[in-house]
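JOB MANIFEST
job_type = single_chain_structure
chain_count = 1
residues = 426
[input]
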Amino acid sequence: MMTFPKVRCAGCAFLALTILATSAADWPRWRGPLNTGEAVGEPALNSLPATPTVLWKIEAGEGFTSPVVAGGKVAFMDNEDGREVLRLLNAADGRELWKAEIDDVFRDSQGPPGPRNTAVFDGDRVYAVSCKGELQCRAVADGKLLWRTSYTNDLHAVFIGERGTAPGATRHGNNGSPLIDGPHLIAPVGGTNGHSVVAFDKLTGKIAWHSQDDVAGYSGPVLAELAGIKQIIAFTADGIIGLRRDNGQLLWRVPMQTAYARHVMTPVVWNDIVVAGSHTAGLVGIKVTADGGTLKAEQVWVNKGAAPNFIHPVALGQHLFTLGPRKNIQCVDLATGEVKWSEDGLVITSADKAYAGFLRVGENVLMLTDAGELVLFKASAEKCEVLSRVQVAGVNWCNPAYADGVLYLRDGIRGKGNLLAVKLTP
């Protein structure tokens, strides 16, 4: 029987029981084993090597998908000759084991043509979604297609690359990576015919339940227990909703309309507060409480000055570590929304909207800036205490994976880049 370390991250302790069937050294899905950016089971990381060892580096095509790691293998997606391709690599040396074409490349007016959904490992299977909403389940051993469905063709979802289908949601296609829990793969399909969020049987693709009529945002679902009920939290183009995990019943809804429907941030759960937000709505705290036989959700705080654009923060205890609109690192109190400290000058970029990828390793935060610098700082509510800084890659918008002391990341925003494995521990 597998055992798991004590969970001290945002969310609830029961989540440790729903981790995918992989080892503690794996990073099998978007934002890691708990979907929170926490490197579960990794030893403390208190400093960075002055010259990190690059174990391997390979060329990567266009795209913004993050790498994921499980069972000694790395999965990632990129653009190869106008096709969105899923690749499986040997984690030790970067050698390609197989590749599979998923879909035609989607092109928008802003970013490079290439995939944006992060793949998901689950045992002997790996799942991938294209920008156009092609969902495929393939065998890890050889890439064989086991089942597939199309959000748009089969489930009649609104494709958020079309014009006029949602407030501003006309450019970037499907971005929200699915979530696996128990026998189900839960996906932000975005169908306005009751198929906004869909739970598929992960082995067969058969639909177990479907719920709501929201157009998809750019965020994947998360799992949490709020007010004693296990539920799926989805950040859609229309707002934040909570659905019963077992049957998809709507438990609560907080509407949020945002310019361009740019709802990207992966929600963070602390106690019974859900935190999410956008570049126009700000960072928002929503309290979920029992109200007789139902649940009630109400906004309890908002902080415009901590507005996330496409940042995915990490939490430790009662505090959230994130990037503000001035390219400033911030520590935010999850109970009140108050900024405990703000630090300028760590993220230096010429981009109008800066980006940084945040991971939590023990009591510290590991941040990959969009200029390719790693910054390790203490997850303290008192002040920003930087422990180490080192350049590891080129310009990027990457949420890296961290497994067994190795950081897996990709660089390149326009055109081709690289996929790297960088050793951070002895």
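[summary]
The chain has a mean pLDDT of 90.
Residues 63 and 114 are 4 Å apart (CA to CA).
exit_status = 0
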